[in-house]
Amino acid sequence: MQEKLYFYYTNDLHSNFEIWPQVAGYLKGAKEERLAENHACWVIDIGDHVDRVHPIAEAFMGKANVELMNHAGYDLVTIGNNEGITMAHDDLHHLYDNADFEVVCANLHSLTSAEPNWLHSTVHIQSDSGIKIGVIGLTAPFNAFYELLDWHISAPFQTLEEHISRLKESTDIILLMSHLGINEDQEIARRFDDIDVIIGGHTHHLLRTGEIVNNTIITAAGKHCGFAGEVVLTWDHDQKQLVDKEATVQDMTVLPRDLATEQALNDLTYKADALLEQTVIELKEPIDVKWFQHTAIMQKLTETLKEWTNADVAMLNGGLLLDQIPSGEVTHKAIHRICPHPINPCMVELTGAELTEVIQGSLTRDFTELKLKGFGFRGEILGKMIYAGIDVETVLREDGSEYVERILHHDEPLDPELLYKVATADTFTFGRLLPEIAGAEDKHYFLPEFLRDLLTDTLRHKWNDH
């Protein structure tokens, strides 16, 4: 006799609640249908469901996301870096206190005295017929951030070695919930023969029909829940083994909206607005924001960053502020709308020669006009770089490009060999946007503050004096 086991999953929603009524309706409907057919069925999330880019996630510090997941009928969840490193230790410690599902993450550890009550390294689930499934979760090891928040992420491969053999002895099937990314998932499948299924995320890859590596089926459903996924495993009771593994995805954008979920979101929006309505400052005139020009507000914000981090130099790109700040009462909600990014202040040490290269690179059109997606940036384009602590003198070439002529620090030219403490957005420590910053050996991140917290401080304490 053969039996089918069904797993429905989401990954990397990033609080994209515009699509959530379709997603929740699909998950609830699929689960009801399978259970009505007496099939074993579970609903799973692979992390980054929470993203403080959305006012609901910001106001409730992720707990409204958990409430929405409860309503959608989730059974198993692992955490992503957006749950892990974008809120203070205590907020994550209590994020899932009211979850109706189990949270599985084997490589997350608290550096304080107590682990969260909700945290499980592995979970055992089983079908009514007795098929035993071992589930393990893993999240990406961004320890430069986690450890500043009193968490530690142990190495994924070492963690698997500690758990897989025990799971193999006690279960029939092993499923990995992986917020590690496609490359890590493929390498895990090559190294660990006993893992049957990897449901992945983090790198926003879309595997429409899955990918077989070694003995493992790997799947993931892209980003922002434009798709949700289904995994179907076929177990042969006579052979006592899996005989088939299938993975597909379903387009959420074409599905009807679940009205109960829509109403819940409307209620949460109303409550979030109330929580974020506290006035930060009252303005007689609006504050101009221009992505390609020097503005007073970006200058003040960059100076705040320099002071906050005790740096020699600070630099921020104008595209961080998405819109002008209107006159009248400026609330936390308005600041969140204008600076929604989950971006932290960061400080690196660069030589004068390296800093000069960074500044020259930030002057190019390839940089200022870049439509960046990711690395915490939630805006349109990077925009002009603004500086504090240095004076940058440039010249325009005939082709319209800008070139650094001279950089002064305390009225003296930069010393090519001297080390300078440079504060900026943590965005530039990733990828290859500004290689000298990304490649800096010593990176110091400031958590849990976001740049919008510095913007709030700037408006509250400095703007009326400017």
From TrEMBL:
What is the name of this protein?
Metallophosphoesterase YunD
Lineage start = Bacteria, Bacillati, Bacillota, Bacilli, Bacillales
Q: Which SUPFAM superfamilies does the UniProt entry name for this protein?
A: 5'-nucleotidase (syn. UDP-sugar hydrolase), C-terminal domain, Metallo-dependent phosphatases
Enumerate the InterPro entries for this protein: 5'-Nucleotdase_C, 5'-Nucleotdase_C_sf, 5_nucleotidase/apyrase, Calcineurin-like_PHP, Metallo-depent_PP-like, Pesterase_YunD
Domain (Calcineurin-like phosphoesterase) spans: 8-205
Q: Which domain of life is it from?
A: Bacteria
Entry similarity comment = Belongs to the 5'-nucleotidase family.
UniProt keyword Transmembrane, yes or no: no
PANTHER family in the cross-refs: 5'-NUCLEOTIDASE (PTHR11575:SF24), 5'-NUCLEOTIDASE-RELATED (PTHR11575)
The molecular function GO annotations come to: hydrolase activity; nucleotide binding
Residue intervals of the 5'-Nucleotidase C-terminal domain: 290-427
Could you tell me the keywords of this UniProt record? Hydrolase, Nucleotide-binding, Signal
KW Transferase (keyword) present: no
GO BP annotations listed: nucleotide catabolic process
Q: Name one Pfam family in it.
A: 5_nucleotid_C
